[in-house]
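User: Please work through this fold.
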Amino acid sequence: MSQKVRWYKRFSNFLKEVKAEVKKVTWPSKNEVYSTTIVVILATFFFGFYLYFMDVIFSWVIKQIKSLFG
């Protein structure tokens, strides 16, 4: 029975510590979340297109090299 009490006390302590730490967090404003979300979406599209075009270019180069030697 004492094992359950110790487990419960540890869990209770853990929850109290979590609550205290969450109070210390500085949460971003709605505008900060909106602007960083837009930046992430734009960066994702940019790098997606960049990698796609680099893949197309390198594929074409490899194809040309194979046609010269193959």
Observations:
- The CA atoms of residues 1 and 15 lie 22 Å apart.
